[in-house]
Amino acid sequence: MAAAARWSHVWVGAETGALKGVNLQKKEATNYGTDWTVPRGGAGVCALCWGEPTQSELLVGCRDRSVKLFSTEKGKFRESRVCPGGDGPFCGLAAYGSTIITCVESGLIKVWPENEMEKAQLELEAGAGLCRMRQDPTRPHRLGTGGKENALKVWDLQRPQEPVFRAKNVRNDWLDLRVPIWDRDLQFFPDSDKIVTCTAHRQVRLYDPRSPRRRPVLETTFGEAPLTALALVPGETSVVVGSAQGDMAVIDLRQGRVLKCLKGAAGGVRGLQCHPGLPLVASCGLDRFLRVHHLGDKRLRHKVYLKSRLTCLLLSTQQDWEAKEEPPPPAEVKEEEGDALWDTMETVPTPAKRAKKRKISGL
Amino acid sequence: EKLAAKKKRRKEREALGDRAPPKAIPKTIENQRVYDETTVDPNDEEVAFDEATDEFAPYFNRQTVPKILITTSDRPRGRTVRFCEQLSTVIPNSHVYYRRGLALKRIIPQCIARDFTDLIVINEDRKIPNGLVLSHLPDGPTAHFRMSSVRLRKEIKRKGKEPTEHVPEVILNNFTTRLGHSIGRMFASLFPHDPQFIGRQVATFHNQRDYIFFRFHRYIFKSEKKVGIQELGPRFTLKLRSLQKGTFDSKFGEYEWIHKRREMDTSRRKFHL
Model-level pTM? Predict the structure, then answer.
């Protein structure tokens, strides 16, 4: 089990509550942490994040409001704690130092200390109807939140009273009606201050807190279905979006055009992530498949059937994705035997193609 | 040229007599079907767990009794109205209501309040029914089918008398993949659990090559091995277009499976149900 845990390239959370480690070379998945004999509904995984930058621990947030710590070295769940308060399932999980930050759909963000017994250190109210909370990877004390009728807000944990940046809605459309907001997913750009969000009204928006405008700097629409997942392509100029009908595309942020479409998904895409080094993007969704596409030539590289509906995924960058396993020795031995056999047989001359020659001469 | 080869083979077979090699199995599309990795293994624990905790669990645990609402798109024409009436005689505990131009999103909360478990909407185009939306009500999956080849009772030849009020048995054939399993469970949840064998009626959903054929028969055992069947009730074929995760929501729904013609129909031997 421990060896298998270390070999997993992708960690996926499913609606049945299982955490799956998937090895893409062998195309296998191993389940962790569920007992299939006890039917227990409502324990699906809502959020996944790395516990530490070394990627040796995973934080798994479940629908029954428990956060479990999973160690990839040992392949087991180490501890679990219940994080009550607020309504609804988790919409974001993050680790900050030794504390855990949880965010619930009703808007309550709590910072939980390492020790289980103590209560939450800090509480933030971010507005109701949240869909996503993410942590800025370069400045872990900054969080971004977005939701239904809840515009993008960037919070700083050191100043919890007010958001650092609160986005403003776009101007009224051509009928002079207010444009509704429903931010489904957001991502921070690693080096600059920019944030990109995708909405369920099929829009992709780019915000820049450093500019004096609070309105989005760039806005594009894509597709006919609500966009449910967003991932950054390393290089800062494009993003991959996934929709509720399985359309995935790479969108250029400089001009707002669609660069490439990634085909194959038949169900709503719930989780998307790009590999930081290789041009690969992994996606998981409600059609119970994990797909890895190559960003350069749009081809599907790996497709693994995982038997439950998938909700979130994490790529492990510590593994060497290109490494192929050594060919097993018995196969080589068999090849040698075969060669010896062929050498002992006499060569038979192939019959000359006389029939065709006759036809030609007949003309 | 082919006929000559066939004749030659038959002569050889007769000449050899008993020692003839067995006949080759002809290749059919079902034989050559591309192996689908989502085929459900009967012993699979994860799938069993998934099914024990999904939206149909209350039905399969016998906690709820199915109650079905059948309606149509707006302003149905005569054929569709008659089809709805016949469908309601086939499915026990079902009610037909006239759709007075009401939005489905407004009907659904009212249905849930009145304890309905399923909603069937038959879509009509040019005076014939051509689509079916089957929605399991308390936030269950919604399946959208294209319906073709609808035959009403009077168009079926050699039919029996009208279907009686007995609860029919249900046969679900050939739903092998995971998607097929979910759809099969959806159909099964339309009918009450205990069939009344006195009525000798059976409703069959037969899946072949991604088309689901619905037939309704009355059977009688003439002897131990011989059965006579009489077809009663309407007959139609369905093809799944999409399966949505929540109740019917065309704008913001999340789809579990959509049929994408350009991507999925590339091979003649690949089926999804």
Answer: 0.81
